[in-house]
Amino acid sequence: MKRNIIVLDTTLRDGEQVPGAKLNMQQKVEFAQQLKRLKVDIIEAGFPASSQGDFQAVREIARTVGDSVSVTALGRAVKSDIDAVYESIRIAQQPLIHIVLGSSNIHVEKKFNRSKEAVLQMGVDAVRYAKTLLPQVQYSTEDASRADYEYLWTMIESVVKAGATIINVPDTVGYAEPDEFGELIRKLNERLMNLNPEVLLSVHCHNDLGLATANTLSAIKNGAGKIECTINGLGERAGNTSLEEVVMALKVREARYQCGTNIQTTELLRTSRLLTYLTGLDVQVNKAITGENAFAHSSGIHQDGLLKDKQVYEIMSPEEVGADSMELILTARSGRHAFKHAVQQLGFDPGEGEELEQLFQRFLELADAKKEVYDHDLFYLVSEHREQSASSRQLFELLSFQVVTNDECPTAAFTLRKGDSVLRGSAVGDGPIDALFRGIKALAELDVSLKHYKINSISRGTEAVGRVNIQLEYVGKTYAGRAMDTDIIKASAQAFLNGINAALLDTVYAQEDSASGEVML
Ligand code: KIV
Ligand code: ZN
């Protein structure tokens, strides 16, 4: 009989630990809404004890998507962390407390410097306490793949007796290999079934040796009923198991695995692109399932075979992962109706009346400049427009700019708006973009430093749109700014301003948080 594998997405927790992948609350909620469309079973929304911002974001996610998706958040095996998790997720319909505690000798001795018995007792006490708050508690035996097997089992047995409803076995450092990890899961599953068959056995793999997907699939074959993954495999170091890879492997090789998931696979590509857009972290072109070339066939022999029958060289269709609805081509003559339909196909709400009109006018400007507007272009246009409208309060807006470039003295002059004020500035720099950045930074009076600047072409054809991603550092935090335009200098200025606006917005949110006095951390 086919087993249903529960999918927990931890992009917003493990994935977000990646340097530069930090999202603001609005972005996290937007991504969580897409995870809901993707039909993941559980969203791990963050690590609420880590900061007030994370606490607020987890709570907002629980409030906005917790009606139909189970929401969890991570805490260490201490009361204050568990309280923070509980307070942030309790509004969700199916909240789940997730506790993590080391299980390997290295963790016990080096991280905690306590006896094995004392660490085990910490885990039991944490689960007992969590159970006084909620019925569903997941316990993660951190670094399980390097743990002493009998100690690992004793820990699992004790926390199950204390009330844990899910046991998660992580390969925290990506050390396991498929046969060995499968064997570990088989042995644990056998004992767990005898102890309490109601408890769900879960796995969480990292990709340090490029084996996360293989290890997760091996665990599924050996009895795991739940998997933890991230979109695009984002996560600590080399990342986590990539959700799209495991889900499609189970789907394409269903006869072999005899397992399926609830994932709406036609939303996979859209989810991947949204994450790329929000984090600014690109997917490698040949990445399985979501890479730009994943369904491209360039060799003549392959193209010939495909024309005869798709199955000759295709094991799954691009449509199955949502590639068909991503292939809309609009022009300036497409009209409001086609535009609205295309925006809806991308999963966005185009709005009505004035809102729709504003969006449509921006589309027409782009279509005039670029002639053919692809799905990519539309996606970035709508996302950017929504970000700007949501955050238009007292933030900087680029009204006009001019640059002069030469090898003597590249110069930029520009006009910005902030609220009701119009501000003018100019600067010289090593090049026109450097001049713009220097001038904008001086006018904004924000001591930011540019950490990263990247420019990509985001669509095909000679009239491609440039997408600029930057990262700024401001008072020890990293902020991302993105923008796209057919003019890369304008996109650069806009991305820089968006980064500055993200820093400003974060400062405003932080002030509002401390003024509201609602946070109980
Ligand atoms: O890698 C890990 O061990 C984790 C746990 C919190 C599950 O992320
Ligand atoms: Zn992890």
TrEMBL record:
Regulatory domain: region residues: 397-521
Residue ranges constituting the Pyruvate carboxyltransferase domain according to the UniProt record: 5-267
Pathway entry: Amino-acid biosynthesis; L-leucine biosynthesis; L-leucine from 3-methyl-2-oxobutanoate: step 1/4
Cofactor or coenzyme needed: Mn(2+)
Gene Ontology MF, one: 2-isopropylmalate synthase activity
Catalysis performed (reactions): 3-methyl-2-oxobutanoate + acetyl-CoA + H2O = (2S)-2-isopropylmalate + CoA + H(+)
NCBIfam families in the cross-refs: leuA_bact (TIGR00973), PRK00915.1-3 (NF002086)
Record text on subunit structure and interactions: Homodimer.
Family to which the UniProt record says this protein belongs: Belongs to the alpha-IPM synthase/homocitrate synthase family. LeuA type 1 subfamily.
Protein's recorded name: 2-isopropylmalate synthase
Species this chain originates from: Paenibacillus urinalis
Gene: leuA
